[in-house]
């Protein structure tokens, strides 16, 4: 990598720009020893290191990498700041800093960045002035986030009531509170629906349910949160394009909604209520577009559904209607993310990616599609 020598004055200017504007950090930023969070968008990837560093790469046409440009990156680029978590939407990214502030960048056509505008941003812009943001989920054209007080907020496109505001909002460029509850634990956003768990381990969904993706037993829309069944042992939930999957505390895994590629883990029509996936030792699950990947308590990784870009990591591009194991490794115990490409963290903190790589989103320095996992090497 080419190195440059800066004058003292220019160094000060760069430091101020990084601190104030959220620009990408200098390319000489140290590579993280471990990865703690990974997220995949349509064609980009972001990861948070154990040292609280944030790195993004891949498609950047709307500025979703956050490095101040619209140039695609085939290797990770460091984003200035100290971060706890990040989530990638179709064409935008949002992340929470260690001081509890929330920042977003990339596509903003529907106000999904929450900065009060519809202007695309190529570098992080702050969402309001709050310092109590706990977690964030970036969908297609909307975003939702939880705060440390247990409140839930959503913004962006609301054509299908995915913001949970009733039928009164079409688009919001700033965060809107979802009801008055202070018991929201985590949230996930799909194409036009949203689901969230509460501290009592109940599960709630709202927005578009034209394929049954809300899991409430019927098609149509819900303009405000509707409880999914009566179970109170939901551990985690993840929303895809038009389907949803979730784990329970007993190790069971459940999916519902559209099933055109077998993403529900069974050869069945669409489902309007949760359908159990075979097995009872599931540890975590992630979905994206029409693909599902999940890890088991023994550290094995399994994927199913759409595989046109090799995103099932099984060495083929064959769609799977039931879980197919990814290799023989038993070290897949960290975070997972999947879309048209997938990524996963292993027990040693290394990051591995696979699938579509047309924009360099696998971070291996190439644009070659990979049907099995390749390790991401940070510069």
TrEMBL record:
This is Alpha-tubulin suppressor-like RCC1 family protein. It comes from the Bacteria. The lineage of its organism: Bacteria, Bacillati, Actinomycetota, Actinomycetes, Micromonosporales. Residues 1-29 form the signal peptide. GO terms for cellular component: cytoplasm. GO terms for molecular function: guanyl-nucleotide exchange factor activity. Keywords: Guanine-nucleotide releasing factor, Repeat, Signal. Gene3D superfamilies: Regulator of chromosome condensation 1/beta-lactamase-inhibitor protein II. Pfam families: RCC1 (PF00415), WD40_RLD (PF25390). Residues 33-327 form the RCC1-like domain.
